[in-house]
Amino acid sequence: MSGEKTVRLSRRYEAHGRAFDSLTFREPKMADFEAIGEIAEYQPAPEGGMLIINHDDRVWRYRDRLLKRGDDLPSAADLGDLDLADAIAVKEAISGFYPGEGKAVRHATDLLIFRFGFSFESVMAMTPSQCLSWAVRGLEAGSNS
């Protein structure tokens, strides 16, 4: 983890008299982690393999808690009208603070390309969540054959 993350939004937004086209999040601290917890967990699947359980509600709590504040900056209450693409970019920025999440995505990328034959371009076009989901599906399919 290192420092702040700034998300450049796809367009300019206005809410409560504030205009903004980017959001900046501070790095989480131990107190944040103790209050909110893990953003994802891995559980054994009933038929073998692993399930990734994403806690999006926790990601949004981190978003609200880590958003850089100031008189001319947006508040957490201003973010409800973000377009879906921008909301996903915020989710990925928050997820990027977690080193385990990055390692899991790198491992999933390797699986998709080298074990399951996905093209490099198709894997690079995926969001981290899509990459993890496809890798888990591939492992589950392999364990059932």
Description:
The structure is a single chain. Helices cover 47% and strands 20% of the residues. It has 145 residues and is α+β, with helices and mostly antiparallel strands. A two-stranded antiparallel ribbon has the order 1-2. A two-stranded antiparallel ribbon has the order 3-4. The longest helix has 17 residues, at 99-115. The model has no long low-confidence stretch (mean pLDDT 83). It has helices at residues 30-36, 56-66, 84-95, 99-115, 120-124, 128-143; strands at 5-15, 18-25, 40-44, 50-54. The chain has six helices and four strands; from the N terminus they run ββαββααααα. α2 (56-66) packs across α3 (84-95) and α4 crosses α6 (128-143).
Structural class: alpha+beta
- Proportion in β-strands: 15-25%
Cα(first) to Cα(last) distance is 39 Å
Oligomer: single chain
| Separate helix tally | 6
**Major beta-sheet overview:** 2 strands, antiparallel
Strand arrangement across the biggest beta sheet: 1-2
Q: How much helix is in the residues? A: 40-55%
- Following the backbone from N to C, one meets helices and strands in this order, namely EEHEEHHHHH
Kindly state the number of beta strands: 4
Low-confidence stretches: none
Write down the Rg: 17 Å
Q: What overall form do the CA principal axes indicate?
A: globular
* Average pLDDT rating: 83
